[in-house]
Amino acid sequence: MKKIEAIIRKSKFDEVKEALIAADIEWFSYYDVRGVGADREERIYRGIVYDTSYIERIQLSIVVRDINVEKTIEAISSAARTGEVGDGRIFIYPAEDAVSIRSGKRGDATLYVEKK
Q: Which superkingdom heads the taxonomic lineage of this protein's source (predicted)?
């Protein structure tokens, strides 16, 4: 199992969500996050200076079976890509174990619903 964390543009969230669903990744968590990028810029609006170096993004957190890692990365990458600076990052970590609270199952069997 792997844990995939992706930081993407807020404007691309719906496209990424649809791409993940199309890739049969049906469960993930997401959070509103802010970060600081390399670009430093101030904007003036009605005489007030705003610091725009804080970048609003969405962070996705997904745990998948090893066989689904590449298609998950591809779904996120293709849907989130604009080709401009600030498209985001994807991080992949090993996930040692998972436990279903309801059923007590362990391992990657907790990541999908078995078809009957």
A: Bacteria
85 Cβ partners below 8 Å, 6+ apart?
Answer: 37, 38, 39
Place of tokens 């990365």: 73
- pTM for the model stands at 0.83
pLDDT (tens digit, 9 = 90+) per residue, 100-114?
Answer: 999 999 998 888 777
Pairing of strands 42-45, 48-51: antiparallel
DSSP assignments along 40-85, one per residue: --EEEETTEEEE--EEEEEEEEEEE-GGGHHHHHHHHHHHH--SST
- 2-111: CATH topology is Alpha-Beta Plaits (3.30.70)
Q: How far apart are CA 94 and CA 103, in angstroms?
A: 23
**How is residue 45 written in tokens?**
């609006």
Q: Which amino acid is at 5?
A: E
Share of the chain above pLDDT 90, in %: 66
